[in-house]
Task: inverse folding
């Protein structure tokens, strides 16, 4: 546990990617395989099972510290992180318990976390109290996070791959590929991961996804200036779906989400359609939910994705398609180094039917595999005009991909760009604030914003991010100074601050008091020049609803 | 709350003793000010006459400038101000910091000012003074705040300094210029390397020395210098130097902050320090409770920090008559703003480094 705790705090203490890789490399070079496999699962954000609820932990902490529950809540509101709050509140570890009792991460997780799932609450409490007595506060924080299933460390898959590649002495891209899917479930699997024998499971692995970055400057003049000749670029619609790879190797096809989860069960018809592809084929593309005539909203697709088993009714209600935009492997040969133009030529031969947003023109027979069509534009101005129509088409804008580019790994900038439609914006008033988490723990950085409805302010969105750290700190002070009421971690503020809210769309909603819901709200600017009286109205927001 | 019948009550200008006609730590100019300590939120220039501890006189003079007379008292020595007995007792916060004991008609009040119970080589140790009404600060009045021993903190700072020295990096330690900076200089192991300090710190180092406090050898950063030290020094400076070109004088450096708020990971991370040392000149939560319990007071007025929370806890856990004393500084300090200034003294100024957060943004009363 000490070794993993050290890793956690080393990663926490630095923002430098080189330092993070070094910390990871040192950890993996020294950790026993069982611990390393465990750490790898935690670092890759694998779903962690929670064996104890946070309210149980709070209750037991109240018992252990003799503090009343309200005071623990006050502390939590101030600190912003429950794991840390409890770690700081609990009495110091017994000094005699420390030496010689340190368990490895795997054993610690097995004995004090996984085994708890099948026991009584009394036994859980005993185990938790015992661990508290043995761990120092810095270890407790990490263990609390593991226990409650919320241990997230700020390292990307790419960094983990780089570190493991150094330990194994292989190329980072090779390691990234080996890490796809459930690559190291236990110690022996971890040892195989570092050795280079391939296994049965390897043959189903997808490739690391290449991710597009958002353009820094989005006016047509800037895009022309930054990207050069329009002819060098392939443009497609940016679908509002779920990124996925369809892998057809060996016996059957597998569908992989960007989170590297196998989602065959959620999308059986896609996996089945993939079976019709020639063996040794890997497609990159987008899962979309469709009805007879329209694209279904993303929320419907999420509903499908979250199912472990899909009933026939769900299959019929939320039909899905796979829209392919890249070919990564053909005839068992990795094509990723070929230029995009060549991969596209081969893709069109393999998946000839283009998907269109005019769904009525699709083949009558239920089909599940389509080609993402190109968006033809002879100039940046033409493309800009098409992009402006995006919201009406139910897409998010355009994708621009350099025709000569290979298929990269991760979010490498330069060859794949998202040229998203400009967001909608409105000036709204800060009404409630809540302390954030992680880097913003203890700072009031989650805001609820309102608009005028007559002489009332009604809440329309909850949003965070978008402001600079210094501004968040300043706003935090204003929130504290203008607090009218405190409800646990939420403060109701006197309306004094106007923030510019950006969002991707507006729709009618019966779930919201305001009657409208905004999609992807985030704060883009602090309008210091505006008084609350000058903020937008609910009527302004309603006018932005696009009839579809 | 205070009422007109109380020995002390809150007025426009601050905490006022009508019978004795004096103020304790007034925030406006008054005829007579009794000062607990020289931090800017407690000691303001411009009053006609001051009273503080003998030990704190030079430091107070440095902060408020010349002009008004400063009367002094030795620890425990008592003076009668219009028939009200006033005495000053060590508060352990910084050199010359005092609790103010006020007695009249058999009723005893103690105003704590800022205080800590931990040992500090640069000032007298906090003295427990029995009273009926205790006015206490609550800067760190949440149970998450529990300090490590000064020895342990000193060892951590020494280890950090030594590791930096061995790597040829300067060790920049940011700390409030009055009190914390001198305490740190006295805590660290001066055999590790040279200690240098920012001008704002030096001015007060001199006042400390002139007051008889022993500090290790500390070099001033020469004005107009282009490069200082060879990566071995411990550089003590106020947080306002952060982001300024002054820091570049030392070449490659590790920057650490010394403040009680560094207990919280979120605060440490946001401010982007390489290290945070949770060392404070305020009492931690157990320290506050110990002082309150030892005072024997039945009535406790809480100010300056987590007042609501601490007052409620005192009512519920001890059955005390505890409430919030609404002063200008009742407002809860935001850790981020406070970490830039003193612990919990968000508008602390007086170093001429004009980037201190504005006090008014923090007051909620
Ligand atoms: Zn002070
Ligand atoms: Zn103070």
Result:
């Amino acid at each position: 546990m000490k070794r993993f705790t050290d890793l956690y705090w080393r990663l926490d203490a630095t923002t430098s990617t080189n330092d993070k890789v070094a910390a990871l490399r040192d950890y993996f070079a020294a950790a026993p395989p069982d611990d390393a496999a465990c750490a790898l699962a935690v670092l890759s954000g694998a779903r962690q099972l929670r064996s104890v609820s946070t309210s149980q932990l709070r209750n037991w902490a109240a018992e252990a510290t003799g503090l009343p529950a309200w005071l623990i809540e006050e502390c939590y509101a101030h600190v912003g992180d429950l794991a840390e709050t409890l770690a700081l509140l609990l009495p110091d570890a017994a000094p005699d318990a420390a030496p010689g009792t340190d368990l490895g991460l795997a054993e610690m997780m097995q004995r004090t976390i996984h085994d708890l799932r099948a026991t009584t609450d009394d036994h859980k409490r005993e185990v938790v109290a015992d661990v508290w007595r043995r761990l120092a506060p810095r270890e407790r924080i990490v263990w609390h996070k593991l226990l409650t299933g919320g241990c997230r460390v700020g390292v990307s898959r790419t960094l983990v791959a780089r570190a493991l590649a150094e330990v194994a002495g292989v190329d980072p891209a090779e390691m990234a590929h080996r890490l796809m899917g459930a690559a190291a479930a236990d110690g022996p699997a971890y040892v195989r991961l570092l050795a280079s024998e391939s296994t049965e499971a390897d043959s189903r692995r997808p490739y690391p996804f290449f991710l597009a970055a958002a353009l820094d400057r989005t006016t047509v003049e800037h895009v022309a200036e930054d990207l050069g000749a329009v002819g060098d670029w392939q443009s497609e619609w940016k679908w509002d779906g779920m990124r996925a790879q369809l892998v057809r190797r060996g016996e059957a096809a597998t569908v992989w989400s960007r989170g590297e989860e196998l989602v065959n069960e959620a999308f059986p018809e896609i996996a089945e359609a993939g079976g019709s592809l020639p063996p040794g084929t890997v497609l990159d593309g987008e899962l979309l939910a469709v009805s007879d005539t329209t694209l279904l909203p993303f929320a419907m697709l999420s509903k499908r994705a979250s199912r472990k088993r899909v009933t026939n009714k769900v299959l019929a209600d939320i039909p899905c398609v796979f829209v392919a935009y890249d070919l990564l492997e053909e005839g068992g040969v990795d094509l990723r180094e070929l230029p995009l133009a060549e991969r596209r030529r081969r893709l069109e031969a393999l998946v000839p039917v283009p998907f269109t947003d005019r769904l009525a023109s699709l083949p009558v027979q239920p089909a599940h595999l389509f080609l993402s069509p190109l968006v033809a534009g002879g100039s940046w101005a033409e493309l800009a005009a098409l992009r402006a129509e995006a919201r009406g088409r139910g897409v998010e804008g355009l994708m621009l991909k350099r025709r000569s580019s290979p298929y990269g790994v991760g979010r490498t900038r330069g060859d794949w760009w998202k040229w998203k439609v400009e967001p909608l914006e409105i000036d709204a008033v800060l009404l409630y604030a809540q302390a954030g988490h992680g880097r913003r723990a203890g700072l009031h950085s989650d805001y609820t914003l309102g608009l005028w409805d007559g002489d009332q302010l009604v809440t329309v969105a909850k949003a965070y991010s978008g402001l600079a750290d210094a501004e968040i700190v300043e706003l935090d002070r204003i929130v504290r100074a203008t607090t009218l009421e405190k409800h646990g971690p939420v403060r109701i503020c006197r309306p004094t601050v106007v923030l510019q809210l950006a969002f991707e769309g507006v729709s009618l909603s019966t779930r919201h008091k305001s009657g409208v819901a905004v999609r992807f709200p985030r704060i883009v600017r602090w309008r210091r020049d505006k008084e609350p009286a000058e903020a937008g109205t609910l009527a302004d927001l309603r006018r932005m609803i696009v009839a579809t | 709350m205070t009422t007109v019948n109380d020995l002390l009550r809150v007025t426009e200008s601050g905490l006022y003793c009508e019978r004795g006609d004096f103020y304790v730590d007034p925030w406006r100019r008054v005829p007579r000010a009794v000062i607990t300590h020289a931090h800017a939120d407690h000691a303001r220039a411009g009053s006609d006459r001051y009273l503080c501890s003998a030990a704190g006189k030079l430091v107070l003079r440095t902060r408020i400038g010349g002009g008004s007379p400063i009367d002094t008292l030795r620890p425990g020595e008592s003076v009668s101000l219009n028939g009200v007995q006033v005495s000053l007792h060590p508060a352990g916060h910084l050199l010359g910091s005092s609790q103010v004991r006020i007695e009249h008609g058999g009723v005893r009040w103690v105003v704590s000012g800022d205080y800590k119970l931990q040992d500090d080589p640069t000032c007298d140790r906090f003295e427990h003074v029995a009273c009926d009404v205790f006015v206490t600060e609550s800067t760190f009045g949440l149970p998450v705040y529990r300090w490590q021993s000064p020895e342990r903190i000193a060892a951590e700072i020494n280890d950090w300094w030594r590791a930096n020295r061995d790597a040829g990096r300067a060790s920049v330690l940011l700390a409030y210029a009055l009190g914390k900076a001198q305490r740190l200089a006295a805590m660290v192991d001066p055999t590790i390397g040279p200690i240098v300090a920012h001008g704002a710190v030096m001015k007060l180092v001199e006042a400390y020395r002139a007051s008889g406090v022993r500090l290790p050898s500390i070099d001033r950063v020469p004005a107009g210098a282009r490069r200082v030290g060879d990566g071995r020094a411990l550089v003590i400076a106020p947080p306002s130097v952060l982001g300024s070109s002054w820091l570049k004088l030392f070449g490659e450096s590790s920057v650490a902050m010394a403040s009680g708020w560094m207990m919280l990971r979120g605060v440490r991370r946001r401010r982007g320090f390489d290290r945070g040392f949770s060392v404070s000149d305020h009492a931690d939560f157990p320290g506050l409770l110990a002082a309150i319990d030892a005072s024997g007071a039945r009535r406790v007025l809480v100010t300056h920090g987590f007042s609501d929370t601490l007052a409620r806890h005192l009512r519920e856990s001890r059955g005390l008559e505890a409430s919030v004393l609404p002063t200008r500084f009742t407002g809860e300090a935001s850790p981020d703003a406070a970490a830039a200034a003193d612990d919990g003294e968000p508008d602390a100024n007086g170093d001429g480094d004009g980037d201190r957060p504005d006090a008014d943004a923090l007051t909620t009363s």
About this structure: Residues B 37, 39, 93, 114, 342, 345 surround zinc ion (ligand 1) (CB under 6 Å). Residues 210-420 of chain A form a domain with the D-amino Acid Aminotransferase; Chain A, domain 1 fold (CATH 3.30.470.30). Chain A touches chain B at residues 12-13, 15, 65, 67-68, 70-71, 74-75, 78-81, 84-85, 88-89, 141, 438-443, 469, 473, 476-478, 480-481, 483 (CB under 8 Å). Chain A has three domains: 2-147, 210-420, 424-547.
